[in-house]
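During the first year of the project, the team set up a workflow for recording each protein of interest as an amino acid sequence followed immediately by a discrete structure-token representation. This format lets reviewers and collaborators read both layers of information side by side without switching files. As required by the reporting guidelines, we include two representative entries from the current panel. The first entry is reproduced here exactly as it appears in our internal archive.
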Amino acid sequence: MIYRKGLIAFMITILAGCSVAEEDEAASSPEQGVFERKNIAPDPADQSMTPRRAEQAYARIALNCINKQYPNKISHLMSSAADVAEPAKLTPVFYGCFDWHSAVHGHWLMTRLWGEDLVPEMDEEIAAALSANFTEEKIAGELAYFNGEDRNTFERPYGLAWFLQLTAELRDIAAGEGGKAEQAKAWLTGLAPLEAVIVGNIKDWLPKLAYPIRLGTHNQSAFAFGLFLDWSQRSGDTEMASLVRDKALSFHRKDINCPMAYEPSGEDFLSSCLMVADLMRRVMNESDYAGWLSEFLPEIPTDGSDDWLAVGIVNDPTDGKLVHLDGLNLSRAWALEGMASGLPVDDPRRASLLASSKLHGETGEKSVRTPYYSGGHWLASFATYWRTRRGIDRTGGNLAS
């Protein structure tokens, strides 16, 4: 019996993705301050186990992910042998979920659902997980990493944009009343030094950026600019707002005939065309935006159809690059809805934009409910962003002059 129990424990450890030696080492290193979830339970998004609401499944994915250190794809500049360390020691807050930016938007996902009271039965668990990571000591470790030599480009712009989305979310919650507002204020205060460094890096970069970055992946500028603007409205940072607005207009005001026929590329998770359109509705009034969009995407139909833009296809959901197309469907969904929100209510293109948004969003959400970590560690955040209409639920309107 003892042997059988030991064998079962050993197999659970193997299935969890680490060796007995690694587990013993973690247990014997309390100074590390890392609690690594092992993901030995059935997949949290598997509806065949226990039917649950999407928000519950997405929150569970993030909870199982933010402190899961391995596997990990690290983007790390080493200046000396002293920079060789495991992810949790390099960036003690945001080390899980495969990479830094996914850990950041995993924290955002939980904060969003918690703050919106969408998973009240999980509030206590989410608050405990966030409190355990948003400690003074761990945030100091993040600061030390960002202040390291030649790290001013780290996670720019994608990860930095998601970090500002996280603090923007906390500001929204903190503006309310009650216990959650007080807790959000405390977390926001703790993260303020890191936020200041990140904002400083962005402001240093923007004046130097000579051209837009039109890729369909992490380096794209349009997606990041949109999140920068949403943060600036909540934080009251008029300097950031002005920098981003001026860049957006100088880069894209004269854009015409965006080649949607060339999309998607095989590893895109952001649309080069639609993200620009979703950005520009933030910096133009309705009338100007309607005219600009007619030149930028002249083939948007007016018949309410949803099939004018084909959804992205993923042939292997276990491939970490190919699964990007699942994210493309979700980011297209929120961009299309954002575009419709920027048009006059009687604009005949709104129906087709919203119909295509629904098609892409529902297609994308199906991809979250798979057991594959290659996509699951980040797709839940994209689904939550679309499902909760985060990019549209803004304060202060757009930044049109």
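The second entry, processed by the same pipeline in the following quarter, appears below.
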Amino acid sequence: MSAIILRVFLIVFGFLVVISLWGFYSSIRPPRILSSLTPRDLKMGYENASFRTADGLTLRGWYISAARRTEKTLILLHGYPADKGDILPALAFLHEDFNLLLFDFRFLGESDGSYSSAGAKEVEDLLAAIRFLKGRGIKEVGVWGFSMGGAVALMALEKAPEIRAVVSESSYASLEQMALSLLRVPLINYPVAYLVGLWAKIFLGIDLRDISPAQRIRHTRVPILLIHSSDDAVIPFSHAQSLQQALAKNPHAEFWFHKGFGHGELGADYQSRVRVFFHKHL
């Protein structure tokens, strides 16, 4: 009997190891998305931009001067596993009032990198973008981020005093909690999430428990607008609630929570809300 129990245990454990390794690998090396759309297609003048991260990767993007002369500049951060072109159409309206910098996170789009870390090391990508803008004489910026990009924007605040305002849309609150979403099967998802975290620690040196926007923003006073839908099926609304709790002591935090929209879907007054927020704080 004990031999049978041991055999069953080994089979189940082996299954969990294989599933978790597959989930880990597919998460850090998703298929690359290369959008064909450029700012020129939307009648916006732009220049190609490239800059290096502290760990030696070259990131590629676009710098778009505002339609009217201004020093106000926004960095726009795409989600996972998309690229800069994915967010351009929805945010083109910001070009009227702000200079824009869009770039591809490491491994994604046209940027260098051997893997994506879903936000853990992408904070360094945002810091590199800020250094690039400082080299052009731009000392203060606003940051808009979607999904992973929103999480990166929040986590970068403690390292980047140049960020004066953040719009974070559909961000996760904890990468450890997001690991539970890799396999949405009761009971199995917990051991798989644990093993995924173990592989991240072993192969990438990343502790998923440390990748937590909710923990990083507890003491910030930077103006933040959180946007999330209670019907988001990709990043559950509970993440937005955790972020809201973390911002309880921030007098400049604003929240726009709505219903009936999926991940990345926009409400009717989206443009006005985002534009007003950035004008108010930049």
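For the second entry, the following points were noted during internal review. The mean pLDDT is 94. Residues 61 and 103 are 4 Å apart (CA to CA). Both points are flagged for discussion at the upcoming steering committee meeting.
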